[in-house]
Amino acid sequence: MKVLSSLIILILAGMLTANFVSAEEKIDVNTAPLEDLIKIIHLGEVRALELMSLRPFSSLDDLIRINGISENRVKDIKEQGLAWANNQEEPEEVTEEKSRPVDPELMIVYPANIVINEILPSPTGPDSEEEWIEILNQNNFTVGLFDWQITDAIGKTTVYTFPEDTTLSAKEFLVLKRPESKITLNNSGDSLNLIQPDSNVIDELIYEKAFQGESFNRINGQWVWSNALTPGAPNIIPIAENQKENQLVKLSELDKKALAAVSEQITQSSSSTLVVLPIALVLAVFSATIILILKNKIKTG
């Protein structure tokens, strides 16, 4: 009996010790220093510094105030089991480290010139399989798109978050098909936003009724519909058939005008030749006559 009691006491002591160690290892987001905060998943040094500037937090759910920390990431932080929020009523002593502002050099600056370049809302085939969105990196350097998002705004809103290994080389295109993005481009009209991880909307587009088989293209800063689909390539705006006919008519008229001008020049040249030729003949005969007269005078003299 004594052995059993001793065993129970040892087990309880072990459990208490384990709980004590576990509590010691937890990181209080309201008091922990920078070197501890960076151990929390999804934080890193930049977000940890921002966390320190936003204290206090009422709970872990309140961490969504940090740029780039979504509800899903809060869920990951909870599942990690390392962080907790001790919401103390008494004001905390402000230390030099806590009051330190975020160093601008450590802040992430996301590049501009990443744009939505072309979309196909109403393909000739099934919308659920053949709709797509094209992204273009207009920069001369590679850009990582991890944590960037695309979202539509009309009807059922869907948010697509680019995975961690997504990169775009200089001037490279990226085509997202609907089965991958899950974004439905409404044929009656819709809008799209391209959002950076700091929640900044870097690009957006709005379109009204879509034309079947035509894509919505960015051309020189303007948006136009085109039946020349160019996913993964520079946009092309083909000449409409009526424009081609008009151009052919204009070319024909120009040809006629050119021919008329040439004919007129030939006529003028011919007329000039008819006038000049007789005069030249008369002068030649007159000159020959004078020479003969002079020769005869010389001989007779």
What does this structure look like?
With 301 residues, this protein is α+β, with helices and mostly antiparallel strands. 39% of the residues lie in helices and 19% in strands. The model is unreliable at 16-23 and 88-99 (pLDDT under 50). A hairpin with a 6-residue loop joins β6 and β7 (159-161). The chain has helices at 2-25, 34-37, 44-54, 71-80, 127-130, 178-181, 241-300; strands at 27-28, 83-84, 114-120, 132-137, 143-144, 149-152, 159-161, 167-168, 173-177, 190-195, 201-207, 215-219, 222-226. The chain folds into 3 domains: 16-106, Orthogonal Bundle (DNA polymerase, domain 1); 114-226, Immunoglobulin-like (Sandwich); 243-301. The N and C termini lie far apart (176 Å). It has a 5-stranded antiparallel β-sheet with strand order 9-4-3-12-13. A 4-stranded antiparallel β-sheet has the order 7-6-10-11, with no helix packed on it. It contains 7 helices and 13 strands.
**How far apart are the first and last residues' alpha carbons, in Å?**
176 Å
- What is the CATH level 1 assignment of the largest domain? Mainly Beta
Shape: elongated
CATH architecture of the largest domain: Sandwich
| Tally of separate helices | 7
Low-pLDDT segments: 16-23, 88-99
